[in-house]
Design goal:
Length: 372
């Protein structure tokens, strides 16, 4: 399931901020800030301390393709070239149970988890599995994008909606999901399975609440090409095989080959992708470096879609902070993710309309201990 940037691009951080410090500057950093307060060490100080700790870091990131986090990794290593970073992408719904199994068997691999399964962070926090830590800039993060005690913090704002190719739709670009059931789009729509990805599922549930099950029946008659991975709709539109995509991320202000729609009156959905350091992490200082870098104003200002989790980051002209869009349903997604019984009912109902999920997972089959 999900992490940033498209989720091919959605988890991708922007260009690295500042030059990497040289080998000659390495050495132990000063003591950590007082418990409960924000980190006071600079990125360079954390870098030196992380290298003194061993210099290794493993991140489990939610996403759809093995290369989805390559840009994040490249930007991080440009800034901190001596860190041995392993960044493993898989659906969040596999990463979370993988972490549970590793904890149960004493074989924990990741230091940091950044996932779409928001409910897991609440549970792990209650179980004492998350390190309570507040990176620099924590106080500037939108309140609903962080745990008050620092057990987790969102490092990126992601939105899901529908999209289209301007060349393919011409002057008849769809404006709301209601337009998608027009017979003229039959055979021209690609979607990720709503019953395979919980964020897509929530988006589809919002459509049902707005337009009713009649809309779902109409869409089911449109010969939609369903596929696994929320990257698939954008890829289909970008590749010219379909005019419209449903259930994926994008950049609201993009003028490229894929136009991602933020409707004025219709629903879309957005959330803060949560990240946390595991209490049993082997490389806690490197993990802290990573969270501080992700939350830094320089990295946040370079988000692919223009949205930041920080209240002091200035969106580009024409875009508001994501929490100022009431139709993004920021509050609804965490509640939705917490009600697993309701989610199962939604999934099975959509399977009745659209058929069972087919295809291998797009990140591949990674097993129990990827990144070890």
């Amino acid at each position: 399931m999900s992490s940033f940037l498209s989720r091919r691009r959605v988890l991708t951080a922007g260009a690295a901020a500042g030059a990497a410090i040289g080998i000659g500057a390495l050495g132990a950093g000063p003591a950590q800030a007082t418990t409960g307060s924000e980190e006071t060490r600079t990125l360079d100080e954390l870098y030196r301390a992380a290298l003194a700790e061993g210099g290794r870091l493993v991140v489990y990131a939610g996403g759809d393709t093995p290369t989805q986090q390559d840009s994040t990794k490249a930007a991080f290593l440009e800034r901190f070239p001596l860190i041995d970073l392993t960044l493993v992408v898989d659906y969040s719904k596999y990463h979370d149970v993988r972490v549970d199994n590793q904890l149960a068997t004493g074989t924990l691999v990741p230091d940091v988890v950044q996932l779409q399964t928001l409910q897991d962070f609440t549970r792990w926090g209650q179980q004492g599995q998350l390190l309570r830590y507040k990176p620099a800039g924590f106080s500037k993060v939108y309140d609903k994008f962080k745990d008050p005690e620092g057990a987790w913090v969102a490092i990126g704002a992601i939105g899901f909606s529908f999209m289209y190719g301007p060349a393919a739709v011409g002057s008849e670009a769809p404006r709301t999901p209601l337009d998608l059931v027009d017979p003229k789009w039959r055979g021209k729509i690609a979607s990720s399975y709503p019953h395979d990805d919980d964020a897509v599922l929530y988006l589809y549930s919002l459509y049902v609440q707005k337009y009713g099950w009649e809309w779902v029946a109409g869409l089911a008659a449109q010969d939609v090409r369903f596929a696994r991975g929320s990257n698939s709709p954008g890829d289909a539109v970008r590749g010219g095989t379909h005019a419209i995509g449903v259930g994926g991320s994008g950049a609201p202000l993009s003028t490229g080959p894929v136009r991602w729609v933020v409707p004025y009156s219709a629903p879309f959905m957005a959330w803060g992708q949560r990240a946390a350091i595991l209490e049993q992490a082997a490389n806690k200082t490197a993990a802290k470096l990573y969270l501080n870098w992700q939350l830094s104003l320089a990295t946040q200002q370079r988000s692919f879609n223009g949205w930041s989790v920080r209240t002091d980051a200035t969106p580009p002209t024409g875009l508001k902070p994501v929490w100022e869009y009431p139709n993004a349903h920021l509050d609804g997604f965490p509640r939705f993710m917490a009600d697993r019984a309701a989610i199962e009912r939604w999934k099975q109902t959509f399977a009745l309309y659209f058929g069972e999920v087919k295809g291998d997972p797009t990140p591949g089959w990674l097993g129990l201990h990827p990144g070890a």
